[in-house]
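Hello,

Our lab assistant flagged a job as stuck in the queue for most of the afternoon. It eventually completed. Since we weren't sure the result was trustworthy after the delay, we are filing this so someone can double-check. Below is the sequence as submitted and the structure that was eventually returned. Let us know if re-running is recommended.
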Amino acid sequence: MLGGGGNMNKMMKQVQKMQEDMAKMQEELAEKTVEATAGGGVVKVVASGKQELVSINIDPEAVDPEDVEMLQDMVMAAANEALRKSQEMMTNEMSKITGGMKIPGLF
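-- returned structure --
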């Protein structure tokens, strides 16, 4: 019966290390960015690893007062792609820590 306590301590240390690694990863992801473009590069969106938009750059050539909807579509497409890439980056980094194990409620 006493031998089981050692396994529990080992498991708790592993969980604590995983939590520390995840906190470090989140800090690192906040510094990393991904970029997506639309319209042949006239719209560029940058997102952080925290899935927050960092910048949106629109080439003046993309601004057509007669076709605002196209510009809106390009911005939305680039933003969605940047956020998708950010999610993918986060998932990849998380799998390095969890060994691919899915943990409900995390990201």
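-- support follow-up --
The delay was a queue issue, not a problem with the job. The result is valid. DSSP finds two helices and three strands in the chain. Strands lie at 33-38, 43-48, 53-58.
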